[in-house]
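for the recovery benchmark. tokens below, seq after
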């Protein structure tokens, strides 16, 4: 992790007052997520690389919509239950949050070829929307720390830039300037009273009680317009044009309090508040094929191109600090220093590419699908997490400083992330009009550092009913998470993080109608 921060800090320049710095975590938020779709798709572990016949295929392997022979309308509302547990420097804590979401929703228009000369038996068009990732969550942890402080990142920033007092007062209005104006960070005097550096008033050696509380919301949504063709019910080829729409919000409250309650050590507490939002839209393409060597076997392959997304971030922040006899209680905010305006930053981000290989075996498949008895299917997915990239956008496109910053940020992504494999398996048994489904999935860690233990294990199940041109599906997915959460990042010493273990339950209900 040390290399990451060295690269990132060395590439930084002094940005304008309305600039927000991005981080590698911003790229990971758009890359490391579990499969989401209709209730049927969720119930079988998210497999859709070779199965087809579900509108979710438009977002996974578009060739799968080629299995449609009729028109269909699908609606998929959902509900999420988050339960998080954290251990931060030996202290356990927990948080919970519920929220609404949705799975694949849209329409499929399919029909047989009317030309006797065409090699294509049928074709289908699908227009759908899916929430690839849901950001509704609550992250809360606390613990005693006598090793580092949130304020040290301000010392690093001021020291790195060799900032004089005028710069410390005005050039870092979302961080260091707030700390300097509240005397949380102050100058060190050298010979003749000259400024020799900066110091933090936080008594790290005797320990501080740190608390991190973040509430997040929003989602990674994707509109897909897909087309697929069916050649003799053996070969299916398809593609979709994708429009990702991102909305992410975070309300953060972070605090440090004197663990000794000593009224004479010139520090009682400080609180940092931040309101952050990130929104954007972009483009991408997904291509795929499914081949049926026998009526019972389906083999699929899909490729997801990188999505190019233009993002706009906004931030407001404030600090309240009590340094007791040193300067008393002071407060300052970015609104006061920026004429009431939020700080803004515009940039482009390119998401990693993905490739999916899949195999399905369908039991007793015949032309009358009502007599189909079930299936078992498996997907193997590779995600090139280290391929994510940031780039300058908007009015700053010609600024060498911004280009250098994003170049350093991209090097940090290369050095800290890796490509990895995700695996999904699931099956269905059908008894006339009733279906029973089970599935499982494993999502590997995107981090190169093995100390950052991160993975996601999923167990799924559900029921379905199909009769007379309508269907209802219900699923439950239980996601078990392992992640590392950083309250703050430092360059000059190893970083401490909270170990997160928890779960997310997802209930999905899908209604469908043949048109």
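predicted aa per position
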């Amino acid at each position: 992790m040390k290399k990451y921060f060295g690269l990132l800090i060395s590439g930084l320049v002094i940005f304008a007052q309305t600039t927000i710095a991005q981080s590698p975590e911003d790229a990971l938020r758009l890359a490391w997520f579990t499969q989401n779709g209709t209730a049927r798709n969720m119930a079988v572990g998210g497999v859709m690389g070779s199965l087809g016949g579900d509108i979710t295929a438009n977002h996974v392997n578009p060739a799968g919509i080629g299995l449609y022979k009729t028109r269909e309308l699908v609606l998929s509302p959902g509900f999420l239950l988050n339960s998080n547990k954290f251990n931060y420097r030996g202290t356990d804590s927990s948080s919970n949050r519920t929220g609404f979401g949705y799975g694949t929703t849209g329409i499929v228009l399919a029909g047989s070829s009317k030309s006797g000369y065409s090699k294509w038996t049928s074709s289908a068009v699908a227009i759908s929307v899916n929430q690839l990732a849901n950001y509704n969550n609550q992250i809360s942890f606390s613990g005693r720390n006598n090793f580092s402080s949130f304020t040290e990142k301000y010392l690093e920033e001021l020291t790195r830039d060799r900032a004089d007092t005028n710069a410390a007062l005005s050039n870092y209005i979302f961080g260091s300037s707030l700390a300097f104006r509240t005397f949380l960070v102050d100058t060190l005097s050298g010979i003749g009273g000259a400024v020799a550096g900066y110091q933090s008033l936080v008594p790290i050696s005797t320990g501080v009680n740190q608390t991190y509380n973040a509430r997040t919301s929003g989602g990674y949504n994707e509109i897909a317009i897909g087309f697929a063709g069916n050649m003799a019910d053996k070969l299916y080829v398809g593609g979709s044009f994708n429009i990702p729409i991102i909305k992410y919000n975070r309300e953060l409250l972070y605090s440090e309090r004197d663990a000794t309650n000593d009224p004479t050590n010139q520090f009682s507490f400080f609180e940092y508040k931040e309101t952050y939002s990130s929104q954007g839209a972009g483009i991408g393409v997904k291509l795929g094929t499914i081949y049926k060597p026998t009526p019972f076997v389906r083999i699929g392959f899909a490729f997801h191109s990188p999505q190019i997304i233009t993002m706009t971030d906004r931030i407001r922040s404030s600090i309240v600090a009590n340094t007791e006899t040193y300067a008393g209680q002071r407060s300052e905010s970015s609104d006061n220093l920026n004429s009431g305006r939020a700080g803004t930053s515009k940039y482009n981000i390119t998401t990693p590419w993905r490739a999916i290989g899949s195999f399905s075996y369908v039991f007793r498949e015949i032309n009358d699908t009502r007599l189909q008895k079930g299936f078992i299917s498996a997907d193997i997915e590779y995600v090139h997490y280290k391929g994510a990239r940031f780039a300058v956008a908007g009015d700053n496109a010609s600024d060498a400083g911004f280009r250098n910053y994003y170049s350093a940020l991209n090097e940090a992504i290369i050095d800290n992330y890796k490509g990895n494999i995700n695996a999904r398996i699931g099956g269905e048994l059908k008894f006339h009009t009733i279906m029973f489904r089970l599935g499982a999935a494993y999502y590997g860690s995107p981090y190169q550092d093995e100390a950052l233990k991160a993975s996601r294990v999923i167990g799924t199940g559900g029921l379905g009913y199909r009769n007379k041109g309508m269907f209802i599906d219900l699923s439950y997915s239980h996601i078990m998470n392992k992640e590392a959460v950083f309250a703050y990042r430092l360059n000059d010493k190893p970083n401490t993080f909270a170990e997160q273990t928890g779960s997310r339950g997802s209930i999905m209900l899908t209604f469908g109608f043949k048109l």
